[in-house]
């Protein structure tokens, strides 16, 4: 297989991943928490390759893959790609054969530029653009994304018909010195790459110092925390669960304390709009309850159409009576936070309408200039 122009690393089996990592190209941090916060126990290793190196297929005898899965190269992205692969193999016997599914790692703009806040380098599409291009060009067959990274618009040549069952949507608070945000002394530095988290933290705890360029994968952020660069950080609990790293969690924040990002915890899988076979495979994986919740939240986000500098949060969930949606917009400094909610039937048309209606309300309440600040 020809290497992708954006630099790719391909794997066909978990053993490929393990053997590549055995050379020590990636080190994994494990945090040792004070006994007052949690009981330390042996950490489980998470090993990943460096995704910037192009590797040719060594075994020319391997049969042509039936599905090539495109993904970013972070440990979390790879975990999501392998989750997708495993689900496909479990449902379709022809995909359980050796070499039937190939994982292709693609380095995105968001992975390459780590020295600046996401808002300063474009925000939308930073983690999907190169993967979308590979999909359109036929270099991969399906693309696995964290849904919160996917812009509300899709390239004309692609569709995103599938969401895997959603993981826990909450955020995790992680610190070596405090058990919660409320316990952090004034002036403590909290690291995050999310304006949504920054604004909600500062709204409740204005005495804290929130650094909004705390970027890198989960392991990198935990290493920086361990080195004392920051006193605390917040990460999506879903990602920590998928990486089997929940032992690092100090406290899980409630939805009331930290409304999640639109589509947080959801995995989306895209294919070309003219590829009926891939669409059929993806239909077999789709979790409809998750897809409808994500559609509601993304309708809210699309209606707001805020700049990448606007903190926005939204969450739709099933209740005994149908669907409850909660939405939020805020100023980056947390001095102004606007919230709303909607309830209605758990059906696509109604839920999309709820998201749009909530977005229109907050646009009206925010007033001119709020989303351009």
UniProtKB/TrEMBL annotation:
Taxonomic source organism: Acacia crassicarpa
Q: Which cofactor does it need?
A: dipyrromethane
Q: Porphobilinogen deaminase C-terminal domain: from which residue to which, for each copy?
A: 292-363
Keywords (alphabetical) are: Chlorophyll biosynthesis, Chloroplast, Plastid, Porphyrin biosynthesis, Transferase
Enzyme Commission number(s) of this protein? 2.5.1.61
Protein name according to UniProt: Porphobilinogen deaminase, chloroplastic
Where would I find the Porphobilinogen deaminase N-terminal domain in this sequence?
67-279
Location, primary (coarse class)? plastid
A single GO molecular function term of this UniProt record? hydroxymethylbilane synthase activity
Output the CDD domains linked to this UniProt entry. PBP2_PBGD_1
What does the record give as the function of this protein?
Tetrapolymerization of the monopyrrole PBG into the hydroxymethylbilane pre-uroporphyrinogen in several discrete steps.
Please give a single GO biological process term from the UniProt record. Answer: chlorophyll biosynthetic process
Q: Tell me one Pfam family matched here.
A: Porphobil_deamC
């Amino acid at each position: 297989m020809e290497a992708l122009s954006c630099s790719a690393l391909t794997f066909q089996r978990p053993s490929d991943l393990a053997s590549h990592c055995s050379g020590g190209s990636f080190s994994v941090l494990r945090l040792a928490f004070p006994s007052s916060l949690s009981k330390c126990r042996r950490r489980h290793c998470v090993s990943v390759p460096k995704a910037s190196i192009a590797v040719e297929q060594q075994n020319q005898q391997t049969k042509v893959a039936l599905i090539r899965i495109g993904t970013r190269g972070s440990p979390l992205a790879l975990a999501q790609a392998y989750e997708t692969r495993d689900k496909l193999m479990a449902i379709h016997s022809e995909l359980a054969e050796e070499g039937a599914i190939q994982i292709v790692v693609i380095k995105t703009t968001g992975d390459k530029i780590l020295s600046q806040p996401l808002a300063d380098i474009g925000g939308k599409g930073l983690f999907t653009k190169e993967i979308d291009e590979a999909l359109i060009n036929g270099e991969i067959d399906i693309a696995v994304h964290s849904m919160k990274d996917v812009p509300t618009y899709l390239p004309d040549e692609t569709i995103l018909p599938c969401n895997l069952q959603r993981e826990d949507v909450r955020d995790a608070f992680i610190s070596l010195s405090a058990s919660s945000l409320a316990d952090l002394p004034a002036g403590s530095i909290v690291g995050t790459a999310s304006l949504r988290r920054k604004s909600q933290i500062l709204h409740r705890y204005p005495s804290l110092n929130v650094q909004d360029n705390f970027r890198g994968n989960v392991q990198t952020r935990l290493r920086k925390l361990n080195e004392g660069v920051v006193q605390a950080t917040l990460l999506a609990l879903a990602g920590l669960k998928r990486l089997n790293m929940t032992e690092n969690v100090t406290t899980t924040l409630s939805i009331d304390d930290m409304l999640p990002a639109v589509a947080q915890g959801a995995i989306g899988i895209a294919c070309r709009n003219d590829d009926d076979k891939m669409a059929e495979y993806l239909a077999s994986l789709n979790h409809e309850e998750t897809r409808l919740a994500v559609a509601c939240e993304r309708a809210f986000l699309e209606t707001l159409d805020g700049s990448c500098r606007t903190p926005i949060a939204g969450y739709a969930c099933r209740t005994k009576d149908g669907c409850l949606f909660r939405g939020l917009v805020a100023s980056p400094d947390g001095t102004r936070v606007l919230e709303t909610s909607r309830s209605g039937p758990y059906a696509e048309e109604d839920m999309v309408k709820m998201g749009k209606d909530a977005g229109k309300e907050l646009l009206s309440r925010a007033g001119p200039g709020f989303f351009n600040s």
